[in-house]
Amino acid sequence: MSFHEKTNLAMLVILAIVFGGYFYTVAGHLISDAPPPALDAVWGSLLRMVLLLVALMVAFHITATVFAPKDSEQPDERDRSIEIRAEARSGVVLGIGIVWALILLFADIEPYWIAHALMFTLVASEIAKSVMRAIAYRVG
Amino acid sequence: MGKGKTRIANTIREQRFHAGEMTQAELADAVGVTRQTVIAMEQGRYSPSLEVAFRVARVFGKPLEEVFSYED
What we know:
The complex is a heterodimer of chains A (140) and B (72).
Chain A: H1 3-31, H2 43-67, H3 77-106, H4 111-139
Chain B: E1 8-10, H1 12-18, H2 24-31, H3 35-42, H4 50-60, H5 64-67, E2 68-70
Antiparallel strand pairs in B: 1-2
Transmembrane segments (chain A): 7-26, 46-67, 88-107, 113-132
Keywords (chain A): Membrane, Transmembrane, Transmembrane helix
InterPro entries (chain B): Cro/C1-type_HTH (IPR001387), Lambda_DNA-bd_dom_sf (IPR010982)
């Protein structure tokens, strides 16, 4: 398994764990009768999520580079081709999510849900991109 | 570069054998790609660019058409 493939799988797992936990909490607000928290109160936890994500990815990169320094080379043409295809296909998820957020906006939904719809869209498109990459590395 | 098996066949495995059982890692270093890319090419899961194809052929000292061919 190449360095870039390992990095991709690590990204997928980290995204799923970090944001899976976050959106689980958000889903709790969706099913409860209480009104959602104010949007201002959300920035702190979103910032923590992003910092945690970056810290985990940096930690993974450092560990992987220390244990296999030769593998951590520049991506070659196959890596770049896989990246371009994954990027193009995950763009569909991003597009659908943005339309969904716009519909919520025009339906006068609370900003809390619109912000989370956009956040969810970004995370879902990143996860879709990682899944596309993982499939491409295995299948061709 | 598409998905699944490509229609570009190659004799890389055979050429490596004739080159003193050159390893995939040695070929990858000589061509400037990762070992996984060499594996994918050998298994017919990846069609290299023309430039990489020429570099592979040059490593074996063979013309391009002896290493790569297009299947009908």
